[in-house]
C-alpha cells in the first residue's frame, strides 16, 4: 500500500549551514564542509523556517521509500555531527608473541604494519581522504583515527583490520590483529 505523503523534519543546530540543491545536501560547520548525494532516492529535500529545519518528503512512497526518509535524515545528522564534533575511532594492536610494529608515515595519512605474526611482509594501508591516523600518547599499542566523515573513518579502520587477518590458522586460538576498541567523537575527551 502506498502512503500519499510521508514527511519528517529535523532541526539544524546553530553554527551549521545546510544547503540543498537537486538532492545534493551540503553541510558546513566549524570543522569543514561535507556533501552527500541522495539522487538515487525518490525523496524531496527542502529547507524550511529560514534554513533552521530540513524537511524530507516522500509522495506516494512504498514501504522502502518511506523507510528511506529516516535513513536520509540520519545520514544528514551524521554529516552535522562530523562538521561540529568530528569522529574518532580507536584501534588496539593485539598480539600474543610477536609484537606488531606500526609506523605512521606520509604526514599521518598512511600506516605501515610490520612483524605481524613474525612475518617479514610490510603491510601498508593508506587512509581515505580526510582521515588522520596517529598513535595514542596515553595508551600503549593504540591507534587513533580522526576525521569528519563517519563513513571514511570507519572504512579506514576496516581497511587496517582487514590487512591483519590470520590466514591458515585457527582464528579461535590466533587472536592477533588490529581491532576497533572504541568509537566516538573528537570532542568527547577534550
Automatic annotation (TrEMBL):
Natural source organism: Musa troglodytarum
InterPro entries the record matches: Ribosomal_uL6-like (IPR000702), Ribosomal_uL6-like_a/b-dom_sf (IPR036789), Ribosomal_uL6_a/b-dom (IPR020040), Ribosomal_uL6_CS2 (IPR002359)
Instruction: Give GO MF terms, alphabetically.
Output: rRNA binding; structural constituent of ribosome
Phylogenetic lineage:
Eukaryota, Viridiplantae, Streptophyta, Embryophyta, Tracheophyta
Q: Name one Pfam family in it.
A: Ribosomal_L6
Record key words, sorted: Ribonucleoprotein, Ribosomal protein
Pinpoint the Large ribosomal subunit protein uL6 alpha-beta domain residues: 12-86, 98-177
Task: Identify this protein by name.
Answer: 60S ribosomal protein
Q: Name one GO biological process term.
A: cytoplasmic translation
GO cellular component terms listed in the entry, alphabetical order: cytosolic large ribosomal subunit
Q: Which family does it belong to?
A: Belongs to the universal ribosomal protein uL6 family.
Amino acid at each position: 500500500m502506498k502512503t500519499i505523503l510521508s514527511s519528517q523534519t529535523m532541526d539544524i543546530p546553530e553554527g551549521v549551514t545546510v544547503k540543498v540543491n537537486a538532492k545534493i545536501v551540503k553541510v558546513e560547520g566549524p570543522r569543514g564542509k561535507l556533501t552527500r548525494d541522495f539522487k538515487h532516492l525518490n525523496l524531496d529535500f527542502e529547507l524550511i523556517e529560514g534554513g533552521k529545519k530540513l524537511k524530507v518528503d516522500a509522495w506516494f512512497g512504498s514501504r522502502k521509500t518511506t523507510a528511506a526518509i529516516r535513513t536520509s535524515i540520519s545520514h544528514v545528522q551524521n554529516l552535522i555531527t562530523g562538521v561540529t564534533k568530528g569522529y574518532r575511532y580507536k584501534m588496539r594492536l593485539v598480539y600474543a608473541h610477536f609484537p606488531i610494529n606500526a609506523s605512521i608515515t606520509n604526514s599521518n595519512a598512511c600506516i605501515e604494519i610490520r612483524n605481524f605474526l613474525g612475518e617479514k611482509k610490510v603491510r601498508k594501508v593508506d587512509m581515505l581522504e580526510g582521515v588522520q591516523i596517529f598513535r595514542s600518547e596515553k595508551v600503549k599499542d593504540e591507534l587513533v583515527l580522526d576525521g569528519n566523515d563517519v563513513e571514511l573513518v570507519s572504512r579506514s579502520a576496516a581497511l587496517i583490520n582487514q590487512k591483519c587477518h590470520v590466514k591458515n590458522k585457527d582464528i579461535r586460538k590466533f587472536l592477533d590483529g588490529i581491532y576497533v576498541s572504541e568509537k566516538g567523537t573528537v570532542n568527547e575527551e577534550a
